[in-house]
Amino acid sequence: MNDLRNMTAGPVLLPGDDGFDQARRPWNLAVDQPVRAVVEAADADDVAAVIGYARLHGLAVTAQPSGHGASGDTEGTILLRTGRLGGVEIRDGVARVGAGVKWGEVLAAASPLGLTGLAGSSPVVSVTGYTLGGGLSWFSRKYGFAADSVRAVEAVDADGGRVRVTAEHDPELFWALRGGGGDFAIVTALEFDLHPAPMLYGGRIIWPADRAEQVMAAFREVTAGAPEELSVWFQLLTPPGAPGFVMADCTYLGADPGALLRPFEAVGGAIADTRRRLPVAELASICDEPVDPSPGVGHTELLTRLDDEVAGVLAGEPIEPLLAVQVRHLGGAVARPVEGGGAVERLAEPYLVHALGLPSPEVAERMERLGKSLVPFSTGRRPFTMLHGGEQAAAAFSPETLARLRDLKRARDPLSVIRSNFPVLG
């Protein structure tokens, strides 16, 4: 594959080269990525060149800025790093970002304008990968999925052609790229609407773990009547070698939520409370998630209810050896159909549960036990961006949506030159 080096402006690393093993690693260090080469794309021309090379040699291309959603399904592929495709431009409330841009960059640019993108909790997740999978945001209860806000996609298709995809130009591909994943084209830039956020309130309250049942009861009370401007997450955390905690994280699109969060204040015994007015640029400070690569395994479920029985499963016993169990309140705009919307599935389920741990047999057993205990209360579906290694894209879509995505994949990429983290034909 040495001839590939002469086809791109960006560097090409092959097995045996210095830095190859580091370059192929995803953000989740528990995932191995066996690839034929790693190419750092300098521009869209490099993307087209790599796709052309792969077609000619019967290979596939997997695109990742940093690999947050990596599944390890990369055998025989060229790993195309798109992290160098940068740039954030904002005009008339519309952002254009390169494929390598991270959410922290967008929020820093939008915040002084009183605007926000539909970001999640981490500032280092790429806008493109997150949005291709739908993108479940802090503000999705009010404004929907990140994919709902996309206006245009700049990409290179499976034939190596440069395309600009909109609702008017190639509506079927435009539909698929808004929530169907990265299996249909290599995206080089996105254009999407930003949303008003002139005032933002948010933060975290922390209690000792022995308050878990009380905090869960407050969480259920708060979320039972929460307006769409308010998003609240419940989380149990057990850091290795340290006492456990229970936390309530929140954002409110406004200056002050008033009495909406008062049930949490009635719990008492809080050991920290960071709630305050904050600029959108500081959104990531709420959860303060790690920004460096690390190993981890996860499991996600969508819940049909959160009654006493479910609350007992989640908060009634210690979660060790898991690191964290998080419950997110959904509803609002993520549950409502969108006219002309994309492939992202609406979430009728009112709550989401996400468990996280370090790789070990004990963690795997505890995670499996948690999943089984939630079966009577869950639908078995997953948001696309919360699929984990070993799971299939089919878990994220209805049979009708999956069939439509598969038909498009077969029509536009019959040689499977492009391979997403979770291929729709998998």
What's the topology here?
Elements: E1 12-13, H1 20-24, E2 35-40, H2 44-57, E3 60-64, E4 77-81, E5 88-91, E6 94-98, H3 103-110, E7 115-116, H4 127-132, H5 140-143, E8 150-156, E9 162-165, H6 171-177, E10 186-193, E11 195-196, E12 201-208, H7 212-224, E13 230-237, E14 245-252, H8 262-265, E15 272-273, E16 276-277, E17 297-303, H9 308-315, E18 324-329, E19 351-357, H10 361-374, H11 399-412
Parallel strand pairs: 2-4, 3-4
Antiparallel strand pairs: 1-2, 5-6, 6-10, 7-11, 8-9, 8-10, 12-14, 12-15, 12-16, 13-14, 13-18, 17-19, 18-19
> CATH fold name of the largest domain, please?
Vanillyl-alcohol Oxidase, Chain A, domain 3
CATH architecture of the largest domain: 3-Layer(aba) Sandwich
State the total count of DSSP E strands: 19
Distance between the termini: 27 Å
Number of helices: 11
List the quaternary state of the chains: single chain
The assigned structural class equals alpha+beta
Rg, nearest Å:
21 Å
Mass-distribution shape: globular
- Count of all domains: 3
CATH top level assignment of the largest domain: Alpha Beta
Proportion of strand residues: 15-25%
Largest beta-sheet characterization: 8 strands, antiparallel
In N-to-C order, the SSE pattern is EHEHEEEEHEHHEEHEEEHEEHEEEHEEHH
Instruction: Report the average pLDDT across residues.
Output: 97
Considering DSSP H and I runs of 4 or more, what fraction of the residues is helical? 10-25%
Structural description of this entry:
This protein has helices at 20-24, 44-57, 103-110, 127-132, 140-143, 171-177, 212-224, 262-265, 308-315, 361-374, 399-412; strands at 12-13, 35-40, 60-64, 77-81, 88-91, 94-98, 115-116, 150-156, 162-165, 186-193, 195-196, 201-208, 230-237, 245-252, 272-273, 276-277, 297-303, 324-329, 351-357. It is an alpha+beta fold. Strands 12, 13, 14, 15, 16, 17, 18 and 19 form an eight-stranded antiparallel beta sheet that branches. Strands 5-6-10-8-9 form a five-stranded antiparallel beta sheet. The longest helix has 14 residues, at 44-57. 49% of the residues are buried.
